[in-house]
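Weekly modeling sync, notes
Attendees: AB, CL, MP (scribe)

Item 1: holo prediction request
CL wants a bound-state model with iron/sulfur cluster before deciding which constructs to order. AB pointed out that an apo prediction alone won't tell us much about the pocket. Agreed to run with the ligand included and paste results into these notes for async review.

Input as submitted:
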Amino acid sequence: MNVEPSVRVEDKLYYNRYLVDIGQPHVKVRAHTTPSAELLALLKVCPARCYELNDNGQVEVTVDGCIECGTCRVIAEPTGDIQWSHPRGGYGVLFKFG
Ligand code: SF4
């Protein structure tokens, strides 16, 4: 039995294009020493894998590949762990079908 998915998310994300608003990220992680449970959850739930642990065990975000799905916003904005806003006009993800 073949258990490989017929379409991988990574393959679809490849078709997207991004215009990065350098110096003005639309998602920011609140400064912390030890990540909250919500921040740690973002490491697993972000479909674009924008969240990573740095060498100090803190959660960082790189918004370059963000598809603006809002998942992290639902989980971690109410707790104050992140600040989330839409990118400025003309910046952010450009969805393509493929
Ligand atoms: S909006 Fe979605 S893709 Fe963007 S950082 Fe949050 S979870 Fe990841």
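Recorded for review: The pocket of iron/sulfur cluster is lined by residues 27, 46-48, 50, 66-72 (CB under 6 Å).
Action items: CL to compare against the apo run; MP to circulate these notes.
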